[in-house]
Amino acid sequence: MRPEDLSKAIRETRDETMSRRRGVIGLSLAAAGSMGLITLYQSGVIRHIPEPPLPALDADKVDASAEAFERFEVAAATFTTAPLVVDEARRALTTLLPSSGRPLPRHVTAPA
User: For a FRET experiment, which of 8, 17, 60, 74 has its CA 20 to 30 Å from that of 53?
Assistant: First the structure.
């Protein structure tokens, strides 16, 4: 399959399998983004974590707690963000690209 055709097939396929995979990719990126924001706060890049004005929420207090720095003397979010990003890259590649010389799944090469 030509690269142009593969690009079009991946982007325009509308079957249920690809919709679920896109959902997983989107949720994974949202999780990585959330942890990235906490990493920025815990490392001092930003001074406040934006959150809805609800009485029970205090992200600054929670994410600056001693427990967040208890192990390895590094912000805990740093250790959580890196695996999320690596896993998301792996998931996107294995979802969208052929592996081990196998052909692309039918839902990509011959969308309904």
Answer: 74
- Separation between Cα atoms, residue 37 and residue 30, nearest integer Å: 11
40 Cβ partners below 8 Å, 6+ apart? 46
SS3 28: helix
Give residue-wise pLDDT tens across range 57-79.
Answer: 887 777 677 766 676 666 666 66
Q: Label residue 103 by pLDDT band (50, 70, 90).
A: low
Nearest to 85 by CA among 15, 34, 20, 18: 34
- d(CA 19, CA 95) in angstroms, rounded, equals 12
Question: Rounded to whole angstroms, how far apart are CA atoms 3 and 96?
Answer: 12
> What mean pLDDT comes out for the span 5-34?
83
Q: Is 93 exposed, middle or buried (0-12, 13-18, 19+ CB in 10 A)?
A: exposed
Query: What are the boundaries of each domain within the chain?
Result: 3-98
In percent, the amount of the chain with pLDDT more than 70 equals 66
